[in-house]
Structure formats: structure tokens, C-alpha cells
Amino acid sequence: MKTHALVMALSVLSSASIAWSQTPVEFQGADLALGEKLIAENKCVACHQGKVGGDGSSIYKPAGRITTPGFLRGMVEQCNTELKLSLFPDEVTAISAVLNRDYYRFK
Prior knowledge:
With 107 residues, the protein is mostly helical. It has one domain. It has helices at residues 2-21, 32-41, 44-52, 69-82, 89-104. Helix 2 (32-41) crosses helix 5 (89-104) and helix 4 crosses helix 5.
């Protein structure tokens, strides 16, 4: 019975390590729950809907515009600066990590 539990635990850890290794270094360790919360609190979707219409998601993939994880984080920082959101660097990273997970999928 203990062997089975150990095998299961190792399997879970292996899956987590694969997912971790597929996350860009810029976003490793980011707090995704915090990123989701900040996106909601700062009404990012409503702002994007106002800019591009529809559900606002077309703002995330303009042809050839955002091509690296660092550039994605830079765009989130630009929103932070322009809108005077006063986000801390780890909060910008958390938001960027959520956007990467949901839209960009950089590895």
C-alpha cells in the first residue's frame, strides 16, 4: 500500500515538474490566483472590450506584436504605468503569467 502511495506522489511531482519546465522563466513561481484577482479588480477585460470590441480577447494576439514572454510582461507594465494602477513587479508578473497561460502559451 505504501509503495502505491509513493508511486502516485512521484507521478504528481513529475507532472508538476513538466508543467513547471514548460513555463517561461519570467513567469515561474508567479501567483496565478493573484493574477486572476488583479485582472478582475482592475477591470482589464472591460478596458480591452472598449478598445477592440467583442469580448476584448483580440487585444491579446495582434499579428506579430507580442512575440516573447518578456515583451508580454512589458505590455502589462505599460498598462500599469499608463493607467496608474500602482501594481508591484510581482503583481505585473502574476497578471502576465495568467495571460500567458490563457492566451499566449509561451514555453
